[in-house]
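Worked Example 4.2. Consider the chain below.
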Amino acid sequence: FGGAVQYFGTGATGGRDNNDNPTGDFSGYYAAYSLAYGRKVGEHLSLGGTARYLHAKIDDVSAHAYAADLGALYQPTNRLSLAATVDNIGSKLTFINQGDPLPMAFHAGASYRPIDQWLLVLEGVATRSDSPALRGGFEWAPIPLISLRAGYKSDTLKGLSALAGLTTGLGLHLWGQELDYAFVPLGDLGQTQYLSVVLKFGSDSDHHRNLVRLPSRHRPWNAKDAAKPESSPFIPEEFLLPDEDTALTEKIVAPLQGPAAEATR
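Applying the procedure from the previous section yields the following structure tokens:
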């Protein structure tokens, strides 16, 4: 499950009438409220969708619309991911009697992690109003605490310099959570700064270490004679379990600490 709230405000803007006479300041905003759900439907495939409510206001006139996103993720290996989405399928955003269609778009992308510290991404975007665009980037994690990111977008270059497509950012990973910052140019709208917080619930995948398959030829022996798993030079790290799973630890690692383990050391 996931949720998001997005808000974009214009601040005070000078208004003028049809004869270009000042009429005072006005403001406007756009807001989107989203709920998402996704799940695995096979060993390598995941599907998901998002329902979204949009609300906008310019001066004293407001409008609203409903939209949905659909997506699929295919992971043939633990280092390669392929994905496709269709965004903003929905109704028009209508102010008084003028309705504008939502910016529906199709995205197809891939990510590849050649080594644990590096992540490479590539994405193609097609919309019904603009030319297809290409986006790419990388993430480098020199230490587990920090991720440094940079990317390039071809869809923000219209009439602008080549630097208008450059994006940068970083991520901080603290106490199992993530704080992200990104600098993203938006063409004629200027430069934007993004701050986001990613909250993760449930235990980490590294914590679930009770799914260990042992060769059947290892016959259990008396676990009371075994040393603590952390101190044994015979046990690979992936066989260790959290401290609170002591009983299960004894059942699983005992076969690796007996005579069979000594013979295969």
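The longest helix spans residues 246-257. The chain has two helices and 16 strands. Compare this with Example 4.1 before moving on.
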